[in-house]
């Protein structure tokens, strides 16, 4: 009878395609919006996740997320290094200078000052040049997107001159870090250079990044550091989630995306659910005839569930394909790099779609179950 | 067993009402009706007299509320719901006024439906369906959709579907009502030639006086009762 169910489903082409495309577009919208939402939130912690050498971040006790820093004292670095279990700990500076090109173009930038001796905290990917060249005086490594922003239409090349706070600096590398939350150029330099580019203040140490000795879990080390120094210590993952939570709680991003996701879900549910319901209702006479001919209620339920599941599977697959194409196209654009289709979003969307299909089919099943087979004579 | 000697359907004082209280409608008021094996038994009468209710009760689609009913020797409404479905699946064929063909299915697929319901493999079911359609003069139209068939052809497909699983009771509800005279005659001729069988009874509900000559017996219903039964011998 599966054959009968599927032929009934595909027999009315217009309704069938209407159902499939309603589910496909609902899937596309849900996967698209949830993945972009997740991608944007992940960007709030991009620079934290790019620091792969360290696994523990130490900051002022009141610091809640990456963009909110209160400088630590230089002596705090020594205190952290003195905590048992710390393999190493180095300074990390974060600031936002205005960067100018010689032709007058400028942009607020994100500058990250790496430990002078070890350059710990640099992202892995570099497209041109090398991290070691940061040991040259007045040198920076700039990210590709920032380079394109400051030198639009010009080829990537080293040796370009920039100006920050009356300091001339030379581009010695072009990197490919994770995109930041705001589309600003990301520049890496040595800690001592960075504080000069921003202008000296009494205290300038944004973060201390550290690594635990072998055998000591990062979470254990954070507890030890907090106990010993009264500073705030977080593992990389904890700090990432701090940032995500901060933006979720304190910005309009989740509300805006939530509304779009909700609208997509409601519209998709209503359109797909109503179309499927109407499809079943319009076939009630046929279901009645099948009942009269000896099809049992459980078999009819199975037929309707099969119809719902197959239309949901096809619509979901098409929608996921559309979403994958969308993200594949935009993944290569500088502004939207790093925004990808998350498997978690696809999974969640799939669960929603199948839930919608099941709800619609349950409503339809009810109509079929209460249908008197004698109705076929009316 | 001589054809016509044995009762396939026996109704004694069968009653059926719908609703209760002020909304109660007494559809059958003590029906006495027999249908014999090997015969076409017609059930005629004005609209609302209870013909459709009676065949629904006989087919096990509705429960009677009084009297005695035996179908093929079985008291159908004493069967459990699942037993009744199996009984209907195996023993009853239906021919509806509006054909009730599945629009997405070809003629052969429509005819094969009762076999598919019974669990016959699809290939075998389709072969048997094509063979049945050939017997009914539709060998060239087995692949046509209902929308590509005339009303008469659709009713012949529906007839093939009613007979494909060789039921012992065929119930026809106004089989010629939606057809012109020629098509109605053709359908009745095929029904008479193919459905009548010593081990099968055929009950036909109809208003169409033009096809009464096919009947072995005609039971006239009025106001929920059988008012008169005329048998062919008597007509002759």
The 3D shape of chain A can be described as elongated
Main sheet overview of chain B: 6 strands, mixed
> Judging from the principal axes of the Cα atoms, what is the shape of chain B?
globular
SS class of chain B: alpha/beta
Q: How would you name the oligomeric state of the polypeptide chains in this document?
A: heterodimer
Q: Helix count of chain A?
A: 12
Distance between the termini of chain A: 25 Å
Q: From the alpha-carbon coordinates, what is the Rg of chain B to the nearest angstrom?
A: 18 Å
Enumerate the strands of the largest sheet of chain B in spatial order, edge to edge or round the barrel: 5-6-7-3-8-9
**Termini of chain B, distance in Å?**
24 Å
Q: What amount of the residues of chain B lies in strands? A: 25-35%
Q: Which structural class fits the helix and strand makeup of chain A?
A: alpha+beta
Rg from alpha-carbon coordinates of chain A: 29 Å
Helix content of chain A: 40-55%
- Tell me the number of helical segments of chain B per DSSP (H or I, 4 or more residues long): 7
List SSEs of chain A in N-to-C order.
HHHEHEEEEEEHEEEHEHEHHHHH
Low-confidence stretches of chain B: none
Q: Biggest sheet of chain A: strands, sense, closure?
A: 12 strands, mixed
């Amino acid at each position: 009878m599966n054959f009968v169910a599927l032929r009934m489903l595909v027999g009315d082409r217009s309704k069938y395609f209407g159902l499939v495309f309603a589910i496909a577009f609902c899937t596309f919208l849900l996967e698209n919006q949830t993945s972009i939402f997740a991608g944007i939130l992940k960007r709030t912690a991009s620079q934290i996740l790019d620091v792969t050498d360290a696994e523990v971040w130490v900051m002022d006790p009141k610091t809640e997320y990456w963009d909110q820093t209160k400088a630590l004292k230089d002596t705090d670095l020594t205190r952290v290094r003195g905590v048992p279990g710390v393999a190493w700990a180095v300074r990390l500076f974060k600031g936002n200078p205005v960067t100018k090109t010689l032709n007058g173009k400028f942009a607020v930038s994100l500058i990250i000052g790496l430990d002078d001796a070890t350059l710990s905290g640099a992202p892995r990917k570099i497209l041109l040049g090398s991290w070691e060249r940061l040991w040259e005086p007045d040198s920076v490594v700039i990210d590709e997107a920032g380079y394109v922003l400051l030198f639009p239409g010009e080829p990537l090349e080293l040796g370009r001159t920039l100006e920050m706070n009356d300091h001339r600096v030379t581009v010695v590398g072009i990197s490919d870090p994770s995109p930041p939350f705001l589309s600003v150029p990301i520049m890496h330099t040595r800690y001592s250079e960075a504080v000069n580019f921003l202008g000296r203040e009494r205290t300038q140490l944004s973060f201390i990044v550290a690594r635990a000795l072998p055998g000591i879990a990062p979470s254990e080390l954070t507890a030890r550091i907090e106990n010993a120094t009264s500073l705030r210590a977080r593992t990389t993952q904890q700090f990432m989630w701090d940032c995500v939570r901060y933006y979720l709680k304190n910005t309009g991003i989740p509300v805006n995306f939530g509304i779009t996701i909700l609208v997509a879900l409601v519209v998709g549910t209503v359109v797909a659910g109503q179309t499927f319901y109407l499809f079943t209702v319009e076939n009630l006479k046929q279901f009645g005839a099948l009942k009269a001919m000896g099809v049992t209620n459980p078999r009819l339920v199975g037929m309707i569930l099969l119809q719902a599941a197959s239309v949901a599977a096809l619509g979901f697959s098409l929608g996921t394909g559309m979403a994958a194409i969308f993200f594949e196209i935009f993944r290569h654009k500088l502004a939207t790099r790093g925004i990808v289709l998350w498997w978690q979003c696809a999974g969640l969307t799939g669960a929603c779609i199948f839930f919608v299909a099941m709800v619609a089919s349950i409503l339809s099943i009810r109509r079929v179950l209460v249908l008197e087979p004698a109705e076929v004579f009316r | 067993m001589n054809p016509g000697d044995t009762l396939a359907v026996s109704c004694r004082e069968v009653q059926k009402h719908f609703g209760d209280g002020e909304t109660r409608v007494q559809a059958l008021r003590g029906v006495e009706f027999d249908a014999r094996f090997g015969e076409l038994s017609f059930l005629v009468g004005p609209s609302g007299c209870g013909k459709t209710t009676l065949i629904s009760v006989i087919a096990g689609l509705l429960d009677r509320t009084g009297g005695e009913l035996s179908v093929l020797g079985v008291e159908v409404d004493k069967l459990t719901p699942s037993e009744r479905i199996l009984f209907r699946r195996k023993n009853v064929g239906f021919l509806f006024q509006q054909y009730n063909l599945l629009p997405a299915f070809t003629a052969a697929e429509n005819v094969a439906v009762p076999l598919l319901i019974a669990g016959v493999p699809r290939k075998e079911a389709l072969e048997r369906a094509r063979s049945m359609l050939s017997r009914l003069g539709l060998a060239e139209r087995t692949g046509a959709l209902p929308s590509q068939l005339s009303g008469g052809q659709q009713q012949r497909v529906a007839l093939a579907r009613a007979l494909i699983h060789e039921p012992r009771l065929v119930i026809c509800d106004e089989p010629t009502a939606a057809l012109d005279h020629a098509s109605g005659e053709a359908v009745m001729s095929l029904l008479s030639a193919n459905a009548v069988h010593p081990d099968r009874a055929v009950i036909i509900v109809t208003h169409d006086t033009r096809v009464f000559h096919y009947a072995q017996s005609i039971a006239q219903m009025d106001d929920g009762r059988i008012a008169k039964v005329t048998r062919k011998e008597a007509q002759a």
